[in-house]
Design goal:
alpha/beta, Rossmann fold, 7-stranded mixed β-sheet, globular
Length: about 190
């Protein structure tokens, strides 16, 4: 077997070939990582949508709306899939719209609110406005579920769990099926 001598010209060519290979491979690696992150975000959004639709399907309002109106309040991280709108398993259509936290239409045009990231003051004002009204509230942001939302999501990887604020449920006038309350209790007991 004959070994070619490494001359300065050959070293330079090898470096150029190696550099060219890296230039071609690294963007593909970065794109693969970006695609994996996008896929994880999509999976989280779909998982959140399933949980939210499940919660909504087990809720009963004093006057059942023909078409359920869900309002997204504030910047949200996992609500992209919800924005598309959908039909619940019961066949009732779900319309979704974005509103600002101080929008007065929240009280008249929202049967449920999905609360994203809000300042403490904006969150307090929103919770005060819907307190005692038949509006189901689901909080996405890291909410300890003691500040007024009926449901608080806990998203980890592609798993979505939720906590329930029983005091807020009682004040809202929206009835929640006991099996949903039991489900949250079982999930809370799991490590």
């Amino acid at each position: 077997m004959k070994v070619a001598a490494l001359t300065p010209g050959r070293v330079k060519r090898w470096r150029l070939m190696l550099l060219a290979a890296l230039v071609l491979v690294l963007p593909l690696h970065g794109m693969a990582q970006g695609a994996a992150a996008a896929t994880l975000a999509e999976q989280r959004a779909k998982a959140v949508t399933q949980v939210v639709l499940g919660i909504l399907s087990y809720a009963r309002w004093p006057v059942e709306p023909e078409q359920l109106r869900l309002c997204l309040i504030g910047p949200t991280e996992y609500a992209d899939d919800l924005v598309k709108g959908t039909t619940q398993a019961t066949g009732r259509p779900l319309t979704v719209r974005r509103l600002l936290a101080g929008d007065p239409r929240i009280l008249t045009q929202c049967d449920a609110v999905y609360i994203g990231k809000l300042s403490g003051e904006a969150r307090s004002q929103l919770i005060s406005a819907i307190n005692g009204k038949p509006v189901l509230s689901i909080s996405e942001a890291d909410d300890p579920c003691t500040v007024g939302s009926l449901f608080c999501l806990r998203v980890k990887d592609t798993q979505v769990a939720f906590d329930v604020n029983l005091d807020s449920v009682a004040r809202s006038g929206v009835r929640i099926h006991p099996s949903v309350l039991q489900l949250s209790r079982r999930r809370a007991l799991q490590p």
